[in-house]
């Protein structure tokens, strides 16, 4: 049995430890619920304020093209874009993070935003990234992670203590990042496979519903990434001069 002075020391150590971990989580979350506005503010806190640019995926380039449907999607979905024919598409390739002038490192997450304009006037928008998994489970963990991985201007790296505390709280995120790190990196946007990640429910003309995740695979061959550029502004523009329809197959 724990004697009373010993027990009260034990309890105060336990209370201090709990209070410490709340303080850490409190610092990560700040006050109150995570809202879209607070997420946007946090991007500015971490990456600085860059008027006229998106807060995330700030560096990017626009493309236009067509989605050419062979009609087989109609087996799963009655939406007009899956009728045989061509649908105009505009899109934007981007690099993850709120820094519009970052170098094109192959290790930076790549994004692709697409907008399909269907013949019936409907507009479809979707976002894809180059990883088959997302590193966080909820917007709250995303919010916390942004600050945990904020670069220290003195070292150019995140504070290891903050990273460690985040990883201890979210071991599932570490596991996902390990899987992502094992993925081969391609040379640019044009030979990248993009994943929609979310699951959508497709309903066909017979009223049958099927859960679907989509992937965009480049038709040109995979080329492994070379050494990253040391610093400065570079852009992998190889995909911008061709239409999206020429370069990717939807799956
Ligand atoms: C909690 C989860 C997420 C948060 C908080 C988040 C946050 C953001 C923010 C703030 C932007 C900038 C929007 C703008 O200024 O127009 C953005 C852009 C983007 N996000 Fe996310 N995102 C999340 C999940 C995802 C997922 C799951 C994907 C892909 C499957 C994704 C792909 C993209 C892409 C491709 C863009 C750039 C779009 C463009 O070029 O216009 N994001 N995200």
TrEMBL record:
The question of whether Nucleus is a record keyword is answered with no
Family listed:
Belongs to the catalase family.
Q: Is 4Fe-4S there in the keyword field?
A: no
This protein's UniProt keywords:
Heme, Iron, Metal-binding, Oxidoreductase, Peroxidase
> What are this entry's molecular-function GO terms?
catalase activity
Kindly provide the name given to this protein in its UniProt entry. Answer: catalase
Record region (Disordered): 221-251
Instruction: List the InterPro entries.
Output: Catalase, Catalase_core, Catalase_sf
Residues covered by the Catalase core domain: 54-223
EC number(s) on file? 1.11.1.6
